[in-house]
Amino acid sequence: MRENEFDVIIVGSGAGGLSAGVRIQSKNPSLKTLMIEKNNYPGGFIGGFFQKGFYFDAAAEAILSMEKGSADSPLTEFDFNHPFTRMDVIETYYDKDRVFHLYSDERKLIEEIKKHFPDQAENAQDFIAACINLRDELIKGKFMSGKLTLKKILKMILKYPNLRTYGRQNFKQFLDSFFTNEQLKNYFMIYPIWLGLTFDELKAPAGAYLLAYSITNGLFYPKGGMEALAKKLAELFVARGGTLKFKTEVEKILIEDKKAVGVKLKDGTIYRAKYIISNADLKRTVLNYVGKEHFNKKYIHLIENLKQSMTGLILFLGVENMDLSQYPAHFHIGVNPNIVEEARRGQFELKEGLAVRIAGNKDPENRVENKDSLHALIIAPNDWNNYWQAGKNKNRQDEKYKKLKENLEEKMIKMIEQIIPEISKHITYQSLATPLTFERYNYVTNGSWYGPRYDQNLPPLATPIENLFLAGSNIAGSGVSNSLQSGIQTANHIVELINKEITRED
Ligand SMILES: Cc1cc2nc3c(=O)[nH]c(=O)nc-3n(C[C@H](O)[C@H](O)[C@H](O)COP(=O)(O)OP(=O)(O)OC[C@H]3O[C@@H](n4cnc5c(N)ncnc54)[C@H](O)[C@@H]3O)c2cc1C
User: Fold this and answer.
1) Among 28, 69, 137, 481, which lies 20 to 30 A Cα-Cα from 79?
2) Is 63's C-beta closer than 6 angstroms to any atom of ligand 1?
3) Which domain range does residue 376 map to?
4) Residue nearest to atom 53 of ligand 1 (CA)
5) What confidence tens digit (pLDDT) does each residue in 413-468 have?
6) For 189-206, how does the pLDDT look when each residue is reduced to its tens digit (9 = 90+)?
7) Reported pTM
Protein backbone atom coordinates (compact mmCIF):
# COMPACT_ATOMS: atom_id res chain seq x y z
CA MET A 1 0.00 0.00 0.00
CA ARG A 2 1.36 3.45 -0.90
CA GLU A 3 2.02 6.20 1.65
CA ASN A 4 -1.22 8.10 0.91
CA GLU A 5 -3.35 4.97 0.72
CA PHE A 6 -5.34 3.56 3.62
CA ASP A 7 -7.97 0.92 4.26
CA VAL A 8 -10.23 3.38 6.09
CA ILE A 9 -10.28 7.17 6.42
CA ILE A 10 -12.25 8.77 9.26
CA VAL A 11 -13.15 12.45 8.93
CA GLY A 12 -13.24 13.96 12.43
CA SER A 13 -12.01 12.77 15.82
CA GLY A 14 -15.18 13.39 17.84
CA ALA A 15 -16.48 10.66 20.17
CA GLY A 16 -17.94 8.81 17.15
CA GLY A 17 -14.77 9.04 15.05
CA LEU A 18 -12.51 8.00 17.93
CA SER A 19 -14.58 4.98 18.91
CA ALA A 20 -14.87 3.88 15.26
CA GLY A 21 -11.08 4.16 14.87
CA VAL A 22 -10.25 2.30 18.07
CA ARG A 23 -12.77 -0.41 17.21
CA ILE A 24 -11.41 -0.97 13.68
CA GLN A 25 -7.79 -1.11 14.81
CA SER A 26 -8.68 -3.35 17.79
CA LYS A 27 -10.51 -5.83 15.59
CA ASN A 28 -7.75 -5.93 13.03
CA PRO A 29 -4.47 -4.13 13.89
CA SER A 30 -3.07 -4.90 10.45
CA LEU A 31 -5.55 -2.45 8.89
CA LYS A 32 -4.36 1.04 8.03
CA THR A 33 -6.83 3.63 9.33
CA LEU A 34 -6.26 7.37 8.98
CA MET A 35 -8.20 9.80 11.18
CA ILE A 36 -8.23 13.44 10.06
CA GLU A 37 -9.04 16.24 12.52
CA LYS A 38 -9.18 19.95 11.70
CA ASN A 39 -8.48 21.08 15.27
CA ASN A 40 -5.21 20.59 17.14
CA TYR A 41 -6.83 18.39 19.80
CA PRO A 42 -8.97 15.24 19.67
CA GLY A 43 -12.55 14.82 20.84
CA GLY A 44 -14.64 17.56 19.20
CA PHE A 45 -17.33 18.20 21.81
CA ILE A 46 -15.57 15.91 24.30
CA GLY A 47 -12.39 17.96 23.99
CA GLY A 48 -10.99 20.27 26.64
CA PHE A 49 -8.56 23.16 26.75
CA PHE A 50 -6.21 25.12 29.02
CA GLN A 51 -6.15 28.90 29.11
CA LYS A 52 -3.89 30.89 31.44
CA GLY A 53 -3.40 27.75 33.53
CA PHE A 54 -7.14 27.03 33.91
CA TYR A 55 -8.62 23.77 32.62
CA PHE A 56 -12.01 23.83 30.83
CA ASP A 57 -14.17 21.10 29.32
CA ALA A 58 -15.00 22.42 25.87
CA ALA A 59 -18.61 21.21 25.80
CA ALA A 60 -19.81 17.86 27.23
CA GLU A 61 -19.69 17.85 31.00
CA ALA A 62 -20.63 14.34 32.16
CA ILE A 63 -21.48 10.98 30.65
CA LEU A 64 -24.42 8.77 31.36
CA SER A 65 -23.73 5.21 32.45
CA MET A 66 -20.03 5.07 31.69
CA GLU A 67 -19.33 2.66 34.52
CA LYS A 68 -17.01 -0.12 33.43
CA GLY A 69 -19.00 -3.30 33.30
CA SER A 70 -22.38 -1.59 33.04
CA ALA A 71 -24.62 -3.14 30.43
CA ASP A 72 -24.72 -0.30 27.96
CA SER A 73 -21.29 1.20 28.46
CA PRO A 74 -19.67 1.44 25.02
CA LEU A 75 -16.19 1.63 26.51
CA THR A 76 -16.44 -1.95 27.75
CA GLU A 77 -16.09 -2.86 24.07
CA PHE A 78 -12.44 -1.81 24.23
CA ASP A 79 -9.87 -2.87 26.73
CA PHE A 80 -10.20 0.57 28.26
CA ASN A 81 -9.65 1.35 31.89
CA HIS A 82 -9.82 5.08 32.32
CA PRO A 83 -11.07 5.99 35.83
CA PHE A 84 -14.41 7.77 36.18
CA THR A 85 -15.97 9.57 39.14
CA ARG A 86 -19.63 8.96 39.80
CA MET A 87 -21.58 12.15 40.47
CA ASP A 88 -23.96 11.89 43.44
CA VAL A 89 -26.08 14.81 42.34
CA ILE A 90 -27.08 15.20 38.70
CA GLU A 91 -28.23 18.80 39.09
CA THR A 92 -28.89 21.24 41.92
CA TYR A 93 -31.58 23.87 41.37
CA TYR A 94 -31.34 27.26 43.06
CA ASP A 95 -34.91 28.12 42.37
CA LYS A 96 -36.55 31.04 44.16
CA ASP A 97 -36.08 30.21 47.86
CA ARG A 98 -35.49 26.50 47.31
CA VAL A 99 -32.33 24.43 46.81
CA PHE A 100 -33.38 21.14 45.23
CA HIS A 101 -30.94 18.31 44.55
CA LEU A 102 -31.70 15.88 41.75
CA TYR A 103 -29.86 12.94 43.30
CA SER A 104 -28.51 10.04 41.29
CA ASP A 105 -29.80 7.76 44.02
CA GLU A 106 -33.35 6.46 44.24
CA ARG A 107 -33.73 6.66 48.01
CA LYS A 108 -32.17 10.13 48.32
CA LEU A 109 -34.25 11.48 45.44
CA ILE A 110 -37.47 10.27 47.05
CA GLU A 111 -36.42 11.90 50.35
CA GLU A 112 -35.67 15.16 48.51
CA ILE A 113 -39.10 15.15 46.87
CA LYS A 114 -40.69 14.45 50.28
CA LYS A 115 -38.75 17.32 51.87
CA HIS A 116 -39.65 19.96 49.28
CA PHE A 117 -42.96 18.71 47.94
CA PRO A 118 -44.59 16.60 50.68
CA ASP A 119 -47.92 16.46 48.84
CA GLN A 120 -46.18 14.93 45.77
CA ALA A 121 -44.16 12.33 47.64
CA GLU A 122 -46.80 9.62 47.53
CA ASN A 123 -46.21 8.98 43.83
CA ALA A 124 -42.44 9.54 43.75
CA GLN A 125 -41.63 5.88 44.34
CA ASP A 126 -44.11 4.74 41.65
CA PHE A 127 -42.67 7.29 39.24
CA ILE A 128 -39.12 6.03 39.66
CA ALA A 129 -40.28 2.41 39.49
CA ALA A 130 -42.12 3.16 36.22
CA CYS A 131 -38.96 4.74 34.77
CA ILE A 132 -36.86 1.71 35.69
CA ASN A 133 -39.48 -0.73 34.36
CA LEU A 134 -39.78 1.18 31.09
CA ARG A 135 -36.00 1.16 30.68
CA ASP A 136 -35.83 -2.57 31.37
CA GLU A 137 -38.66 -3.33 28.95
CA LEU A 138 -36.96 -1.25 26.23
CA ILE A 139 -33.77 -3.25 26.74
CA LYS A 140 -35.47 -6.66 26.94
CA GLY A 141 -37.49 -6.05 23.79
CA LYS A 142 -34.43 -4.55 21.96
CA PHE A 143 -36.55 -1.50 21.16
CA MET A 144 -33.73 1.05 21.40
CA SER A 145 -32.13 0.19 18.08
CA GLY A 146 -33.51 0.01 14.58
CA LYS A 147 -36.81 1.28 13.23
CA LEU A 148 -40.05 1.01 15.16
CA THR A 149 -41.92 -1.44 12.96
CA LEU A 150 -45.54 -2.55 13.32
CA LYS A 151 -44.28 -5.92 14.58
CA LYS A 152 -42.29 -4.17 17.31
CA ILE A 153 -45.27 -2.03 18.32
CA LEU A 154 -47.46 -5.14 18.61
CA LYS A 155 -44.79 -6.85 20.70
CA MET A 156 -44.63 -3.78 22.95
CA ILE A 157 -48.39 -3.79 23.48
CA LEU A 158 -48.75 -7.53 24.02
CA LYS A 159 -45.68 -8.33 26.10
CA TYR A 160 -44.68 -5.23 28.03
CA PRO A 161 -47.18 -3.64 30.47
CA ASN A 162 -45.31 -0.37 31.11
CA LEU A 163 -44.72 0.27 27.42
CA ARG A 164 -48.39 -0.53 26.83
CA THR A 165 -49.44 2.09 29.40
CA TYR A 166 -46.92 4.87 28.73
CA GLY A 167 -45.48 4.05 25.31
CA ARG A 168 -47.56 6.58 23.43
CA GLN A 169 -47.21 9.38 25.95
CA ASN A 170 -44.73 12.19 25.77
CA PHE A 171 -42.47 12.95 28.72
CA LYS A 172 -44.75 15.78 29.89
CA GLN A 173 -47.81 13.54 29.94
CA PHE A 174 -45.77 10.87 31.71
CA LEU A 175 -44.75 13.33 34.45
CA ASP A 176 -48.38 14.53 34.66
CA SER A 177 -49.46 10.95 35.45
CA PHE A 178 -47.49 11.08 38.70
CA PHE A 179 -47.10 14.70 39.80
CA THR A 180 -49.27 17.81 39.88
CA ASN A 181 -46.65 20.33 40.99
CA GLU A 182 -45.24 22.19 37.97
CA GLN A 183 -42.10 23.29 39.78
CA LEU A 184 -41.17 19.72 40.63
CA LYS A 185 -41.88 18.58 37.06
CA ASN A 186 -39.62 21.34 35.76
CA TYR A 187 -36.66 19.84 37.64
CA PHE A 188 -36.83 16.87 35.29
CA MET A 189 -36.52 19.05 32.20
CA ILE A 190 -32.78 18.37 31.89
CA TYR A 191 -33.73 15.05 30.27
CA PRO A 192 -35.43 16.55 27.20
CA ILE A 193 -32.73 19.23 27.11
CA TRP A 194 -29.98 16.58 26.95
CA LEU A 195 -31.55 15.61 23.63
CA GLY A 196 -32.26 19.17 22.56
CA LEU A 197 -36.01 18.68 22.82
CA THR A 198 -38.99 20.19 24.60
CA PHE A 199 -40.97 18.30 27.26
CA ASP A 200 -43.65 17.50 24.66
CA GLU A 201 -41.25 16.26 21.98
CA LEU A 202 -39.48 13.73 24.17
CA LYS A 203 -41.27 10.38 24.17
CA ALA A 204 -42.05 9.02 27.64
CA PRO A 205 -40.00 5.79 27.22
CA ALA A 206 -36.92 7.70 26.02
CA GLY A 207 -37.14 10.18 28.91
CA ALA A 208 -37.73 7.36 31.39
CA TYR A 209 -34.74 5.47 29.97
CA LEU A 210 -32.41 8.43 30.58
CA LEU A 211 -33.81 9.10 34.02
CA ALA A 212 -33.64 5.45 35.09
CA TYR A 213 -29.99 5.21 34.07
CA SER A 214 -29.04 8.46 35.74
CA ILE A 215 -30.66 7.32 39.00
CA THR A 216 -29.59 3.68 39.06
CA ASN A 217 -26.19 3.81 37.36
CA GLY A 218 -25.43 7.50 37.55
CA LEU A 219 -23.60 10.22 35.72
CA PHE A 220 -19.86 9.87 35.29
CA TYR A 221 -16.99 12.26 34.88
CA PRO A 222 -13.63 11.10 33.49
CA LYS A 223 -10.64 11.63 35.78
CA GLY A 224 -8.55 14.46 34.35
CA GLY A 225 -11.57 15.99 32.60
CA MET A 226 -13.26 15.23 29.30
CA GLU A 227 -10.07 15.94 27.40
CA ALA A 228 -8.30 13.12 29.26
CA LEU A 229 -10.90 10.68 27.91
CA ALA A 230 -10.55 12.00 24.35
CA LYS A 231 -6.75 11.93 24.52
CA LYS A 232 -6.74 8.40 25.89
CA LEU A 233 -9.00 7.16 23.09
CA ALA A 234 -6.75 8.94 20.56
CA GLU A 235 -3.64 7.33 22.11
CA LEU A 236 -5.31 3.91 22.03
CA PHE A 237 -6.14 4.37 18.35
CA VAL A 238 -2.50 5.21 17.53
CA ALA A 239 -1.13 2.45 19.80
CA ARG A 240 -3.23 -0.08 17.87
CA GLY A 241 -1.80 1.05 14.53
CA GLY A 242 -3.98 4.00 13.49
CA THR A 243 -2.66 7.30 12.09
CA LEU A 244 -4.08 10.53 13.47
CA LYS A 245 -3.48 13.90 11.81
CA PHE A 246 -4.40 17.14 13.59
CA LYS A 247 -4.80 20.61 12.04
CA THR A 248 -5.77 18.87 8.83
CA GLU A 249 -9.03 19.77 7.16
CA VAL A 250 -11.02 17.70 4.71
CA GLU A 251 -12.45 19.81 1.91
CA LYS A 252 -13.90 17.10 -0.30
CA ILE A 253 -14.84 13.45 -0.11
CA LEU A 254 -13.85 12.02 -3.48
CA ILE A 255 -16.36 10.00 -5.47
CA GLU A 256 -15.46 7.90 -8.51
CA ASP A 257 -17.89 5.59 -10.30
CA LYS A 258 -20.46 6.25 -7.55
CA LYS A 259 -18.04 5.02 -4.87
CA ALA A 260 -16.24 6.97 -2.13
CA VAL A 261 -12.54 6.55 -2.83
CA GLY A 262 -10.71 9.14 -0.73
CA VAL A 263 -10.55 12.69 0.56
CA LYS A 264 -9.02 15.94 -0.62
CA LEU A 265 -7.63 18.23 2.05
CA LYS A 266 -7.80 22.00 2.10
CA ASP A 267 -4.10 22.13 1.17
CA GLY A 268 -4.78 19.96 -1.88
CA THR A 269 -3.31 16.70 -0.52
CA ILE A 270 -5.22 13.58 -1.54
CA TYR A 271 -5.57 10.47 0.60
CA ARG A 272 -7.23 7.41 -0.84
CA ALA A 273 -9.00 4.57 0.99
CA LYS A 274 -11.44 1.77 0.36
CA TYR A 275 -13.82 2.99 3.07
CA ILE A 276 -14.63 6.49 4.30
CA ILE A 277 -16.38 7.30 7.57
CA SER A 278 -17.61 10.82 8.18
CA ASN A 279 -17.88 11.88 11.80
CA ALA A 280 -18.20 15.49 10.62
CA ASP A 281 -21.47 17.43 10.49
CA LEU A 282 -24.06 15.57 8.43
CA LYS A 283 -25.27 18.47 6.28
CA ARG A 284 -21.70 19.55 5.49
CA THR A 285 -20.72 15.96 4.69
CA VAL A 286 -23.55 15.43 2.23
CA LEU A 287 -24.06 18.89 0.76
CA ASN A 288 -20.47 20.24 0.76
CA TYR A 289 -17.83 17.51 1.13
CA VAL A 290 -19.54 15.06 -1.23
CA GLY A 291 -21.93 17.34 -3.11
CA LYS A 292 -25.66 17.10 -3.83
CA GLU A 293 -25.09 15.83 -7.36
CA HIS A 294 -23.85 12.44 -6.07
CA PHE A 295 -27.00 11.56 -4.11
CA ASN A 296 -30.51 10.62 -5.05
CA LYS A 297 -33.27 13.18 -4.53
CA LYS A 298 -34.87 11.27 -1.66
CA TYR A 299 -31.67 11.31 0.40
CA ILE A 300 -31.01 14.99 -0.29
CA HIS A 301 -34.60 15.75 0.73
CA LEU A 302 -34.05 13.86 4.01
CA ILE A 303 -30.77 15.65 4.78
CA GLU A 304 -31.89 19.15 3.77
CA ASN A 305 -35.02 18.87 5.85
CA LEU A 306 -33.38 17.65 9.04
CA LYS A 307 -33.85 20.13 11.86
CA GLN A 308 -30.80 20.88 13.97
CA SER A 309 -30.84 20.61 17.77
CA MET A 310 -30.49 23.78 19.78
CA THR A 311 -27.36 25.77 20.58
CA GLY A 312 -26.48 28.41 23.16
CA LEU A 313 -23.86 30.39 25.02
CA ILE A 314 -21.05 29.19 27.26
CA LEU A 315 -19.14 31.55 29.51
CA PHE A 316 -15.75 30.15 30.60
CA LEU A 317 -14.42 31.69 33.82
CA GLY A 318 -11.03 31.27 35.50
CA VAL A 319 -11.13 32.16 39.18
CA GLU A 320 -8.19 32.70 41.54
CA ASN A 321 -7.94 32.61 45.35
CA MET A 322 -11.56 31.63 45.91
CA ASP A 323 -12.85 28.44 47.47
CA LEU A 324 -15.52 27.01 45.17
CA SER A 325 -15.54 23.57 46.79
CA GLN A 326 -18.62 24.43 48.89
CA TYR A 327 -20.84 24.75 45.78
CA PRO A 328 -22.43 21.89 43.84
CA ALA A 329 -20.48 20.66 40.80
CA HIS A 330 -23.54 21.16 38.56
CA PHE A 331 -26.15 23.76 39.43
CA HIS A 332 -28.94 25.66 37.73
CA ILE A 333 -29.93 29.22 38.54
CA GLY A 334 -33.71 29.14 38.25
CA VAL A 335 -35.60 27.11 35.70
CA ASN A 336 -37.18 28.19 32.45
CA PRO A 337 -39.24 25.25 31.19
CA ASN A 338 -39.88 27.04 27.88
CA ILE A 339 -36.25 27.79 27.09
CA VAL A 340 -35.97 25.40 24.11
CA GLU A 341 -39.23 26.61 22.51
CA GLU A 342 -38.22 30.25 23.03
CA ALA A 343 -34.82 29.66 21.40
CA ARG A 344 -36.51 27.96 18.45
CA ARG A 345 -38.68 31.05 18.02
CA GLY A 346 -35.53 33.17 18.02
CA GLN A 347 -36.24 34.60 21.47
CA PHE A 348 -33.54 35.07 24.09
CA GLU A 349 -33.44 36.72 27.47
CA LEU A 350 -30.90 36.17 30.23
CA LYS A 351 -33.18 35.22 33.09
CA GLU A 352 -33.72 31.76 34.60
CA GLY A 353 -32.02 28.67 33.29
CA LEU A 354 -28.29 29.38 33.53
CA ALA A 355 -26.44 26.13 34.24
CA VAL A 356 -23.10 26.36 36.06
CA ARG A 357 -20.44 23.63 36.13
CA ILE A 358 -17.41 23.75 38.48
CA ALA A 359 -14.57 21.64 37.09
CA GLY A 360 -12.67 21.24 40.39
CA ASN A 361 -15.77 19.89 42.14
CA LYS A 362 -16.01 17.03 39.65
CA ASP A 363 -12.33 16.22 39.84
CA PRO A 364 -10.06 18.07 42.32
CA GLU A 365 -7.18 17.62 39.89
CA ASN A 366 -8.84 20.21 37.66
CA ARG A 367 -8.10 22.72 40.45
CA VAL A 368 -4.50 23.84 40.06
CA GLU A 369 -3.00 25.54 43.15
CA ASN A 370 -5.18 28.61 43.75
CA LYS A 371 -6.86 28.38 40.35
CA ASP A 372 -10.34 26.99 39.76
CA SER A 373 -12.53 27.14 36.71
CA LEU A 374 -16.20 27.05 35.95
CA HIS A 375 -18.39 27.45 32.94
CA ALA A 376 -21.96 28.66 32.63
CA LEU A 377 -24.27 27.55 29.82
CA ILE A 378 -27.60 28.78 28.58
CA ILE A 379 -29.71 27.75 25.61
CA ALA A 380 -30.07 30.46 22.99
CA PRO A 381 -31.06 30.84 19.33
CA ASN A 382 -28.52 30.35 16.58
CA ASP A 383 -29.53 33.64 15.00
CA TRP A 384 -30.42 36.23 17.65
CA ASN A 385 -30.05 39.95 17.19
CA ASN A 386 -28.62 39.59 13.67
CA TYR A 387 -26.25 36.73 14.42
CA TRP A 388 -25.26 38.16 17.78
CA GLN A 389 -24.56 41.52 16.15
CA ALA A 390 -21.90 39.97 13.92
CA GLY A 391 -24.18 40.34 10.89
CA LYS A 392 -25.06 37.86 8.16
CA ASN A 393 -21.35 37.33 7.38
CA LYS A 394 -20.83 36.29 11.00
CA ASN A 395 -17.85 38.58 11.39
CA ARG A 396 -16.51 37.83 14.84
CA GLN A 397 -14.14 40.80 14.62
CA ASP A 398 -17.08 43.20 14.37
CA GLU A 399 -17.00 45.71 17.24
CA LYS A 400 -20.76 45.32 17.78
CA TYR A 401 -20.34 41.55 18.27
CA LYS A 402 -17.52 42.14 20.77
CA LYS A 403 -19.56 44.76 22.66
CA LEU A 404 -22.61 42.50 22.82
CA LYS A 405 -20.44 39.68 24.17
CA GLU A 406 -18.98 41.95 26.87
CA ASN A 407 -22.48 42.96 27.86
CA LEU A 408 -23.68 39.37 28.09
CA GLU A 409 -20.60 38.31 30.05
CA GLU A 410 -21.29 41.02 32.61
CA LYS A 411 -24.93 39.96 32.98
CA MET A 412 -24.05 36.27 33.27
CA ILE A 413 -21.46 37.01 35.96
CA LYS A 414 -24.06 39.01 37.88
CA MET A 415 -26.40 36.01 37.73
CA ILE A 416 -23.67 33.69 39.02
CA GLU A 417 -22.94 36.16 41.78
CA GLN A 418 -26.43 35.53 43.19
CA ILE A 419 -25.13 32.09 44.20
CA ILE A 420 -21.38 32.68 44.47
CA PRO A 421 -21.08 36.14 46.05
CA GLU A 422 -18.17 38.34 45.01
CA ILE A 423 -16.97 35.95 42.31
CA SER A 424 -16.39 38.92 39.98
CA LYS A 425 -13.50 40.07 42.22
CA HIS A 426 -11.66 36.77 41.62
CA ILE A 427 -12.07 36.32 37.86
CA THR A 428 -8.75 36.50 36.03
CA TYR A 429 -9.85 34.81 32.78
CA GLN A 430 -13.17 35.07 30.96
CA SER A 431 -14.32 34.12 27.50
CA LEU A 432 -17.78 33.77 25.98
CA ALA A 433 -18.59 31.21 23.29
CA THR A 434 -21.61 32.01 21.13
CA PRO A 435 -23.33 29.78 18.53
CA LEU A 436 -20.86 31.31 16.04
CA THR A 437 -17.99 29.89 18.11
CA PHE A 438 -19.39 26.34 18.00
CA GLU A 439 -19.93 26.63 14.28
CA ARG A 440 -16.31 27.72 13.81
CA TYR A 441 -14.64 25.19 16.11
CA ASN A 442 -16.62 22.07 15.30
CA TYR A 443 -18.05 22.99 11.91
CA VAL A 444 -21.56 22.17 13.10
CA THR A 445 -24.57 23.51 11.20
CA ASN A 446 -26.20 26.35 13.17
CA GLY A 447 -23.67 25.77 15.97
CA SER A 448 -25.98 23.02 17.22
CA TRP A 449 -24.88 21.26 20.37
CA TYR A 450 -26.45 17.86 19.76
CA GLY A 451 -26.36 17.42 15.97
CA PRO A 452 -29.67 16.85 14.17
CA ARG A 453 -32.69 16.75 16.49
CA TYR A 454 -33.34 13.35 18.01
CA ASP A 455 -37.11 13.29 17.30
CA GLN A 456 -36.66 12.80 13.54
CA ASN A 457 -35.86 9.88 11.31
CA LEU A 458 -32.08 10.06 11.30
CA PRO A 459 -30.26 8.41 8.40
CA PRO A 460 -28.65 4.98 8.84
CA LEU A 461 -24.90 4.43 9.08
CA ALA A 462 -24.62 3.49 5.39
CA THR A 463 -25.14 6.32 2.91
CA PRO A 464 -26.48 5.74 -0.63
CA ILE A 465 -22.87 6.09 -1.81
CA GLU A 466 -20.96 2.84 -1.79
CA ASN A 467 -18.19 2.74 0.85
CA LEU A 468 -19.24 6.01 2.51
CA PHE A 469 -20.46 5.65 6.10
CA LEU A 470 -21.47 7.90 8.99
CA ALA A 471 -20.68 7.87 12.72
CA GLY A 472 -21.51 10.05 15.72
CA SER A 473 -24.42 12.21 16.82
CA ASN A 474 -25.28 12.75 13.15
CA ILE A 475 -26.99 9.40 13.11
CA ALA A 476 -27.13 8.36 16.76
CA GLY A 477 -28.79 11.34 18.39
CA SER A 478 -27.24 13.39 21.11
CA GLY A 479 -24.82 12.40 23.80
CA VAL A 480 -21.38 11.00 24.30
CA SER A 481 -22.58 7.44 24.97
CA ASN A 482 -24.70 7.41 21.81
CA SER A 483 -21.87 8.84 19.70
CA LEU A 484 -19.35 6.31 21.04
CA GLN A 485 -21.83 3.50 20.45
CA SER A 486 -22.52 4.66 16.92
CA GLY A 487 -18.79 4.68 16.07
CA ILE A 488 -18.56 1.08 17.25
CA GLN A 489 -21.53 0.02 15.11
CA THR A 490 -20.12 1.70 12.00
CA ALA A 491 -16.71 0.12 12.64
CA ASN A 492 -18.24 -3.34 13.12
CA HIS A 493 -20.09 -2.98 9.83
CA ILE A 494 -16.93 -2.01 7.93
CA VAL A 495 -14.77 -4.72 9.51
CA GLU A 496 -17.43 -7.25 8.51
CA LEU A 497 -17.30 -5.97 4.91
CA ILE A 498 -13.50 -6.18 4.91
CA ASN A 499 -13.59 -9.72 6.33
CA LYS A 500 -16.05 -10.78 3.63
CA GLU A 501 -13.70 -9.42 0.97
CA ILE A 502 -10.76 -11.34 2.49
CA THR A 503 -12.81 -14.56 2.52
CA ARG A 504 -13.82 -14.01 -1.12
CA GLU A 505 -10.18 -13.42 -2.14
CA ASP A 506 -9.09 -16.59 -0.32
C1 LIG B 1 -22.29 22.51 25.23
C2 LIG B 1 -22.51 21.03 25.10
C3 LIG B 1 -22.73 20.28 26.24
C4 LIG B 1 -22.93 18.91 26.12
N5 LIG B 1 -23.09 18.17 27.27
C6 LIG B 1 -23.15 16.83 27.17
C7 LIG B 1 -23.13 16.04 28.35
O8 LIG B 1 -22.99 16.55 29.47
N9 LIG B 1 -23.22 14.69 28.20
C10 LIG B 1 -23.34 14.09 26.96
O11 LIG B 1 -23.42 12.86 26.89
N12 LIG B 1 -23.34 14.83 25.83
C13 LIG B 1 -23.22 16.18 25.92
N14 LIG B 1 -23.18 16.92 24.78
C15 LIG B 1 -23.32 16.24 23.47
C16 LIG B 1 -22.08 15.48 23.09
O17 LIG B 1 -20.93 16.21 23.45
C18 LIG B 1 -22.10 15.23 21.60
O19 LIG B 1 -23.34 14.63 21.23
C20 LIG B 1 -20.98 14.29 21.15
O21 LIG B 1 -19.75 14.57 21.81
C22 LIG B 1 -20.84 14.43 19.64
O23 LIG B 1 -19.80 13.60 19.17
P24 LIG B 1 -19.61 13.36 17.62
O25 LIG B 1 -18.55 12.34 17.48
O26 LIG B 1 -20.89 13.10 16.97
O27 LIG B 1 -19.14 14.75 16.96
P28 LIG B 1 -18.26 16.00 17.30
O29 LIG B 1 -17.88 16.10 18.73
O30 LIG B 1 -18.98 17.16 16.69
O31 LIG B 1 -16.91 15.75 16.47
C32 LIG B 1 -16.76 15.98 15.11
C33 LIG B 1 -15.29 16.23 14.83
O34 LIG B 1 -15.09 16.38 13.43
C35 LIG B 1 -14.17 17.43 13.20
N36 LIG B 1 -14.40 17.93 11.83
C37 LIG B 1 -15.54 18.48 11.34
N38 LIG B 1 -15.39 18.80 10.06
C39 LIG B 1 -14.13 18.43 9.70
C40 LIG B 1 -13.38 18.51 8.50
N41 LIG B 1 -13.89 19.04 7.40
N42 LIG B 1 -12.10 18.04 8.49
C43 LIG B 1 -11.55 17.50 9.62
N44 LIG B 1 -12.23 17.42 10.80
C45 LIG B 1 -13.50 17.87 10.83
C46 LIG B 1 -14.50 18.45 14.28
O47 LIG B 1 -13.44 19.34 14.50
C48 LIG B 1 -14.77 17.51 15.46
O49 LIG B 1 -13.59 17.25 16.20
C50 LIG B 1 -22.94 18.29 24.85
C51 LIG B 1 -22.69 19.04 23.70
C52 LIG B 1 -22.45 20.39 23.83
C53 LIG B 1 -22.11 21.19 22.61
Assistant:
1) 137
2) yes
3) 311-447
4) 449
5) 999 999 999 999 999 999 999 999 999 999 999 999 999 998 888 999 999 999 99
6) 999 988 889 989 999 999
7) 0.95
